Amino acid sequence: MRNLLLIILFISNLGISQDIYPADTLISSQNSNFLEKATILPISAWQRLSYNSNLLSCQFYPSCSNYGAIAISQRGIFVGSAIAADRIVRCNPFALDYHYDLNGKFHYPDYRLIDPLHIIDSKNNSNKSPLIAAGLSTILPGSGRMYAGRFRDGLVGLWMIVISSTAAYSSFQENKNNKGNFFSIITLLFYTGEIYGAYRTAKYYQVSNNK
User: Could you tell me if 101 and 25 lie in one domain?
Assistant: First the structure.
């Protein structure tokens, strides 16, 4: 009975979501299907916390939550989730250094790092192959980013997969299958995010010679 009530509440939230936070507009949009809205709903819930706390403020513009919601809405659940996972990996303490390396722009007045979903003006001066980068991360997550010049991002990506996969393994060992399945999905998302992120890093995020 309790599970049924939760399902009813979940579905009703999809229908009556108000356009208060950025993800809410995507939930109420007719361009998103039910599964996409269901995936974006937890992001909307997170924004109700992060957008009201300086401690949870994202260093990027758009924020990681909004970036992920847009990616899922435009690219679908699977590809969009991989894109979101890539952004989460890149949202680390080294992001500002990499942003300076690229002569990246800042969003005023909050000085967040502008990192759009769709890159139009790329100043890529590297001879690194996006396909090789993606292939390397397929074999060893994180290695594609390292090959493309972002060693620290590669370490973060690898570490995220190690943590989530270890949590999944431990959960299954303790016969906590639901928890194990959850962390397995998280591991898969970060794994696909590493492949996508390695490709994107080699193609777009290279040091500009115009510094």
Answer: yes
